[in-house]
Every structure is written in C-alpha cells, then in structure tokens.
Amino acid sequence: MAVKTVRRPELTFWEKLYLPQILSGLKITSTHFFRNLFLHTAHLFGRLTHLRASATYQYPEELRPLMSRFRSRHRLTRRDDGSPRCVGCMLCETVCPARCITIVPDEHPDPHVEKFPIRFDIDLGVCVYCGYCVEVCPEDAIRMDTGILDLAAYSREAMQLDIHELLDPELRKPLAGCDLDFPHQCQLHEGELRGSWSPSPDS
Ligand code: SF4
Ligand code: SF4
Question: Nearest ligand to the C-alpha of residue 142?
Fold first, then answer.
C-alpha cells in the first residue's frame, strides 16, 4: 500500500510572532465585552430589550436553569407506600450499553406485583448518560431528572450509587444506616452502610 507523506506547513514569520493571533483574540473578547456592557446598560433604562446580552452564572453557587430533557443523575421513583416502583424486570440492566447497572430482584410480598429489587446499583464512573435505561423502563421507575450535576468523588466506590442513594438523591456516602422500610437486604460494617450485599460477619 502506497504511503502518502503529508508535509506539515511551515509557520510564516508573522505566524511565529503570534501577534496577529493575539490581536485577533483581543478584538473578539473586546467586542463581546463592550457589546454586553452597552446592552446591559441599555436594559437598565428599558431600551433594546429585544436584544439579549450574555450573563455569567456564578457556578456552583448559582445553577444555570436546565432544559427539561437534560439528563442528570438517576433516581428511582417510589409508590405511595415508599417502596420502589421498579418491578425488577431487568430491561434497563439488559439495554445499558455500559453494563453499569446491577439489579438483584426478589419475589414481591404483594401477589399483584411480580418482583422488586433487593439491590439496585448504578456505577456512575462507567455510565455514559445515554438515557436508555429511562426510555426502556415500562414502569417509569427510573428517571434522570434530579438536576444533580456534581458527580465528582474521591474514590471509584463513591461513584457507585446503591438503592438508598437512588431512592433518595440527597443522600451521600457514607450512609450511617438504612431507613428503607420495604423488604430488601442491607449490610452494616462497623456502623456504616457500605453497599455490600453479601453476608458479613459483623452484620
Ligand atoms: S444512562 Fe445509559 S449508560 Fe447510564 S445507566 Fe442508563 S443505560 Fe446505562
Ligand atoms: S426497566 Fe424499570 S422496572 Fe425494569 S428493572 Fe429497570 S428500573 Fe426496574
């Protein structure tokens, strides 16, 4: 197979000085600055209100309004009695392209409901925020409408949401205890809920 050599173009004298690029950048920045200054001043006097001026959001203290279709951190929706709407059908786990959902279903005590999750984990460190899990769910049991954007954590383990954090998006690890009152499995290690779902000797 023939190999075509592509020569990297040499910079001209003016390009090596970078002055034209710096001046060009300053021109763009100054244009935006004076345009916004002029428009915001005009808006104060009720003039030119049909022209929008840029505004700076003081993130993270001030959050920018999110579009209704924006996909933020997941949550599990609840029934009236506080139990999850999820019926453990495994569709979301099956469709997830990142393989980051883990569900362990069990028989539901109500004979009209087939199953419910005793374990429901989502690894946000792997999730690609495609929203397939929300779209495929037949029960409207999982949504991505919490508006929570701050997903940084100090460890990979902290990026893994379990059923407690999914049912109550305000919770953050480490969880000191479990207050969910539907049948499910939680394991405490030295007084802290670690998200371990296998029997532990000190539980
Ligand atoms: S948003 Fe996509 S990648 Fe993330 S858990 Fe749902 S299906 Fe998986
Ligand atoms: S698709 Fe919905 S009902 Fe089925 S396991 Fe996922 S969250 Fe639960």
Answer: 2
* Residue 17 DSSP SS3: helix
Residues with CB under 6 A from ligand 1: 96-98, 100-101, 122, 127-133
Residue with tokens 């508006």: 147
Among 145, 138, 158, 159, residue whose Cα is nearest residue 92: 138
91-141 residue pLDDT tens:
999 999 999 999 999 888 888 888 999 889 999 999 999 999 999 999 999
Q: Which residues pair with 76 in a beta bridge?
A: 142
Return the half-sphere exposure (C-beta side, CA atoms, 13 A cut-off) of residue 170. 0
Q: How far apart are CA 109 and CA 181, in angstroms?
A: 13
Alpha carbon distances (Å) from 158 to 117, 119, 149:
21, 16, 15
Rounded distance between C-alpha atoms, residue 132 and residue 73, angstroms: 14
